Predict the structure.
Amino acid sequence: MPLDEPAVTFRPALRTDLARVVELIADDDVARERTGTFGAAHVAGFEAIEASPNDELVLAVLDDEVVGVMQLTFVPGVSRNGATRLLVEAVRVDARRRGRGIGRALMEHAHARGRERGAALAQLTSDKQRPDAHRFYRSLGYAQSHEGFKLTL
Amino acid sequence: MPLDEPAVTFRPALRTDLARVVELIADDDVARERTGTFGAAHVAGFEAIEASPNDELVLAVLDDEVVGVMQLTFVPGVSRNGATRLLVEAVRVDARRRGRGIGRALMEHAHARGRERGAALAQLTSDKQRPDAHRFYRSLGYAQSHEGFKLTL
């Protein structure tokens, strides 16, 4: 199997995948502390995603194992000539599986799903502490055109 | 009336406000071209916002005139311990009314609305061509912690 064509498949996350999803999201130097240990707060977040018509939690599966995750949010809008935006959050690939094109396949799946639902624009932010991720997103054609701001409420 | 306490009120945008909303969004060097002339695409975008349980288009009103606009999107999630995020997009204040605290009042209203709906985090991106906006968001307490990426689909 060539390195750039992993036999990755994609499917929506189920409630029974949630412990694994939290594990993937937490397995990261930047996110570990703020993710917390798998518990009721994650279940509530998952149920809110399931209840939303505009949100999808998508898994990448390789050899029957969940190896990646991302959340897609479709944001309708008036600006940019009434464009729907695809917001991509919480992109993670299993650390043991990196460098095999899984992240790229995941993002290409996000863009295909975005086009299916009529999105004209994909957008995401990446912590300034992640220069490798920035290079990755630029390699996918993203413009690094914006500053990203966060405020705890 | 002190400069920092404008008598601004806030209300959801109605279909009849839409031409004014598009005018406000387009009245900006960065956004003018990509906004387009008010038409069917903006109406479709507005109707999609109205149909979404997670999106709100909010107007700032001063002396019976619409002087500002912003879109709020509530994004449920598993990451950050199951936090809901408040995404703020398309923030605009009438160019003739700037420097009177309307933008600050608009953002404080966004944050109050975010807390009401249980959001733990507010986030937004701002074009790298807008240093004044970056200073403004930092002055509100935002951390300029992320790089923002966009891709046309």
